[in-house]
Automatic annotation (TrEMBL), chain A:
One Gene Ontology term, aspect cellular component: cytosol
Biological processes annotated in GO: phenylacetate catabolic process
Protein name in the entry: Phenylacetate-CoA oxygenase subunit PaaA
Pfam families registered for this protein in UniProt: PaaA_PaaC
Signal peptide start-end: none
A GO molecular-function descriptor: phenylacetyl-CoA 1,2-epoxidase activity
Biased composition (Basic and acidic residues): 315-328
Region (Disordered) residue spans: 285-328
SUPFAM superfamilies: Ferritin-like
NCBIfam families: PA_CoA_Oxy1 (TIGR02156)
TrEMBL record, chain B:
GO cellular component entries: cytosol
GO biological process, one term: phenylacetate catabolic process
PANTHER family, alphabetized: 1,2-PHENYLACETYL-COA EPOXIDASE, SUBUNIT C (PTHR30458:SF0), PHENYLACETIC ACID DEGRADATION PROTEIN PAA (PTHR30458)
Domain of life: Bacteria
Pfam families cross-referenced by the UniProt entry: PaaA_PaaC (PF05138)
Name the record gives this protein: Phenylacetate-CoA oxygenase subunit PaaI
InterPro entries: Aromatic_CoA_ox/epox (IPR052703), Ferritin-like (IPR012347), Ferritin-like_SF (IPR009078), PaaA_PaaC (IPR007814), PaaC (IPR011882)
SUPFAM superfamilies, per the entry: Ferritin-like
Length: 328, 275
C-alpha cells in the first residue's frame, strides 16, 4: 500500500477517494498509513472499541467462577479462557490505536458510558452451568459474527480477528464439552444446564443486533466491507449451527416456533423480544451498573500503579540522560 | 480464509488436545513418567512434601485469580493470570504425585476440595488477603524467590517425578520472580504514594519470613535477592520480627478458611457430580 501513501501528497481528495473505493472494490486491505474517509475511520474506531470493551467486560460474568470452579481442571480451563479475553482486548485496543485512538481515552469512554459493549454481558451468571452455556452460545455467536470480520477491509482488524476467532472456537468447544460432561452427571446437573440454556438462548440471538430493517449502521459498514453479512443472516447461521448441537447435548431450546423449513433449507425460529434488547442496550439490563462499576473501580484503584510506572520510566530516562551527559 | 470451513469445523469432533491452553486438557498429568517410588525414598514424607508444596501453589493461585478483572492494567491481568495458571499447574502435578505415593490413590480434586483448613499445609504468607497491588507483588517476590530456591534443590531430588515437576517449575518461577522484582522496583522508585505503599507491604510480609526459612534452608539466597531488589527500588530491607506458629504444622490465619470455603463451595454442594 505504499503507492497510496505517496499518492496522498500529490493527489486531491477526489482522487484519494477514488483510490480508496477501488481498493475496497478489489477486496484489498486498507492499511493504517493509507488515506481513508473520516466516516470509515470513525465507524471502525467505534466498532473495534466496542469489540475491545466487550472482551474486557466479558471477563466479568465468567471470571466470577474462577475461584469457585468445581475441579482443578475446570479452574485451569476457565482461568486460561478469561485470560485469553484480556489478551483479545489488548489486541483490539492496539488495532484501534492504529487508527489514531488512544486506549486510555477509550477506557474513559467505556466507564463513563459513552461507548457500548455487547449487551450479552449484562446478564448474570448464577450457576456454574452458565460457564458452559456462555462458551457454547455466546462464544458461538461471537464466532458467527467475527469469522467474516477476518475478511474485513481494514488490515489490522482483520488480522486481529483471525487470531481471536481461533481462540474463540476453542473456547466454544470447551464450553460445550463442560455441558456434555454435566449432562452425563446427576439429575441436578442436567437441570442446571437446561435452566441455563433457557436463560441464555434469547439474549444470545440478540447478540447479532437488531433486525436488518432496524440497524442504523449496517448499510455503510456493508458498503465499506467492514461488515460482510447482515445481522439477520448471521443470526440464521447461528441458529442453524446450534440446533443439531442442542439435540446431541439433550437440551431443549426454549422456542416453540423453532423447526426445520425444507423449502428455505434453514430453521424457522421465533422473534426475540426486541424491547428487551433496547432496554439492555439503554443501560437497564440486570447487570449493566455492576459491570461498569467493576471496570471503573479497577481502573480508579489502579491509577496510582500506572502513575508509579510512568514516574519510574521518566526517572529512568532522566538518569540515562544524566549518565550520557557525564560521559560527554 | 473460508468462513464456511471455520463454521463447519465447530460442529465436528476434535481430538487435537495440543491446543488446550496451559496443559488443561490432560486427564493424567504424569502419563508416561515412571511413577515407582525409588528405593531409599520414604513414601510418607515424599507425599507430605508434595502436598505442602501443592497447597502453597493452590492457595497462591486462588489469591491471584481474585485479581481477575481488578488488575491496574490489562497487561497485569494477563501476567497475573499467567502466574496463577503456572502455580495451579504445579499444584495439580504435586497433588497427583502425592496421591500415587501416599497409598490412598486420591486424585488432585480430593486434596483441593475435600480437606479442611486444618489439613492444609501452605505457609501463611500465601493465604493472606491480596491487599493492594504493592502487597501482592511484594508477596509474590518473596514467595517466588523462596520457592525458586527450593525448586532448584528439588530438581536433583531422588524421586524422578518430583525432580521433573521442580525442573519445570524453575523456569516458571524465574519469570514470576522477575515480574515481581520489576514491579517492586517500579513502585519503590515511582511516586511518593507507591513508595509508601511498597514500604508498608514489605513491613507486612516480614513477620512471615521465619516460617519460610524453617521449612526450607534457603535463607541466604532469598535474602540476597530481596536485598538486591529493595536496593534498586530505594526501599529499606524490612525489619525481621518472627511470628509464632507455622502453616506447615496446620496453624493458619483466619483468612484460609473463607478462601477454601469459596474454592470448595460448588464441588461440595454437588456430591456425586462430575465436572
Amino acid at each position: 500500500m505504499t503507492t497510496t501513501h505517496s499518492a496522498e501528497a500529490t493527489l486531491p481528495e477526489g482522487s484519494l477517494q477514488e483510490h480508496f473505493d477501488a481498493t475496497i472494490a478489489r477486496d484489498q486491505r486498507i492499511e493504517p498509513r493509507d488515506w481513508m474517509p473520516d466516516g470509515y475511520r470513525r465507524t471502525l474506531v467505534r466498532q473495534i472499541a466496542q469489540h475491545a470493551h466487550s472482551e474486557i467486560i466479558g471477563m466479568q460474568p465468567e471470571g466470577e467462577w474462577i475461584t469457585r470452579a468445581p475441579s482443578l481442571r475446570r479452574k485451569a480451563i476457565l482461568f486460561a479462557k478469561v485470560q485469553d479475553e484480556a489478551g483479545h482486548g489488548l489486541y483490539l485496543y492496539s488495532a484501534a490505536e492504529t487508527l489514531g485512538a488512544d486506549r486510555a481515552d477509550l477506557t474513559e469512554r467505556l466507564i463513563e458510558g459513552r461507548q457500548k459493549y455487547s449487551s450479552i454481558f449484562n446478564y448474570p451468571t448464577p450457576t456454574f452451568a452458565d460457564v458452559g452455556v456462555i462458551g457454547w452460545f455466546v462464544d458461538g455467536a461471537a464466532i458467527c459474527n467475527q469469522v467474516p470480520l477476518c475478511r474485513s477491509s481494514y488490515g489490522p482488524y482483520a488480522r486481529a480477528m483471525v487470531r481471536i476467532c481461533k481462540e474463540e472456537s476453542f473456547h466454544q468447544r470447551q464450553g460445550y464439552e463442560l455441558l456434555m460432561t454435566m449432562m452425563r452427571g446427576t439429575g441436578a446437573q442436567r437441570e442446571m444446564v437446561q435452566d441455563s440454556v433457557d436463560r441464555w438462548w434469547w439474549p444470545s440471538l440478540m447478540m447479532f443486533g437488531p433486525p436488518d430493517g432496524d440497524s442504523p449502521n449496517s448499510a455503510a459498514s456493508m458498503a465499506w466491507k467492514i461488515k460482510r453479512h447482515t445481522n439477520d443472516e448471521l443470526r440464521q447461521r447461528f441458529v442453524d449451527m446450534t440446533v443439531p448441537q442442542a439435540e446431541k447435548l439433550g437440551v431443549t431450546l426454549p422456542d416453540p416456533e423453532l423447526r426445520w423449513n425444507v423449502e428455505r433449507g434453514h430453521h424457522d425460529f421465533g422473534t426475540p423480544d426486541w424491547s428487551e434488547l433496547k432496554r439492555v442496550i439503554g443501560g437497564d439490563g440486570p447487570c449493566n451498573a455492576q459491570r461498569t462499576q467493576r471496570r471503573r473501580s479497577a481502573h480508579e484503584e489502579g491509577a496510582w500503579v500506572r502513575d508509579a510506572a510512568t514516574a519510574h520510566a521518566a526517572k529512568q530516562a532522566e538518569r540515562a540522560r544524566e549518565r550520557e551527559g557525564a560521559v560527554a | 480464509m473460508s468462513d464456511d470451513h471455520v463454521y463447519l469445523s465447530l460442529a465436528e469432533g476434535h481430538e487435537d488436545d495440543a491446543r488446550w491452553a496451559y496443559g488443561t486438557g490432560f486427564e493424567d498429568p504424569l502419563h508416561g513418567v515412571d511413577t515407582t517410588v525409588p528405593a531409599g525414598v520414604d513414601a510418607g514424607s515424599l507425599a507430605a512434601d508434595c502436598v505442602a508444596l501443592a497447597d502453597d501453589a493452590l492457595v497462591s493461585a486462588q489469591r491471584l485469580a481474585e485479581w481477575t478483572t481488578r488488575a491496574p492494567e490489562l497487561e497485569e491481568e494477563v501476567a497475573l493470570a499467567n502466574i496463577g495458571l503456572d502455580l495451579l499447574g504445579q499444584a495439580r502435578l504435586l497433588y497427583a504425585r502425592a496421591g500415587q505415593v501416599d497409598g490412598t490413590g486420591r486424585g488432585e480434586d480430593a486434596y483441593a476440595y475435600f480437606r479442611d483448613a486444618a489439613d492444609f499445609r501452605n505457609v501463611r504468607l500465601a493465604e493472606l488477603p491480596n491487599g493492594d497491588f504493592a502487597f501482592s507483588v511484594v508477596r509474590l517476590l518473596v514467595l517466588s524467590s523462596w520457592r525458586l530456591a527450593h525448586f532448584e534443590e528439588l530438581s536433583a531430588h531422588p524421586d524422578p517425578v518430583l525432580a521433573a515437576v521442580a525442573a519445570k517449575g524453575v523456569k516458571e518461577l524465574t519469570y514470576h520472580r522477575q515480574y515481581a522484582a520489576e514491579w517492586v522496583v517500579r513502585l519503590g522508585d515511582g511516586t511518593d504514594e507507591s513508595h509508601r505503599r511498597t514500604r508498608r507491604a514489605l513491613e507486612q510480609v516480614a513477620p512471615y519470613f521465619g516460617e519460610l526459612f524453617t521449612a526450607y534452608d534457603v535463607r541466604d539466597g532469598v535474602v540476597a535477592v530481596l536485598r538486591q531488589v529493595t536496593e534498586a527500588a530505594g526501599l529499606p530491607m524490612p525489619v525481621y520480627r518472627p511470628l509464632p506458629g507455622a502453616g506447615r504444622s496446620g496453624e493458619h490465619t483466619g483468612h484460609l478458611a473463607p478462601l477454601l470455603a469459596e474454592l470448595q463451595s460448588v464441588a461440595r454442594a454437588h456430591p456425586g457430580a462430575t465436572w
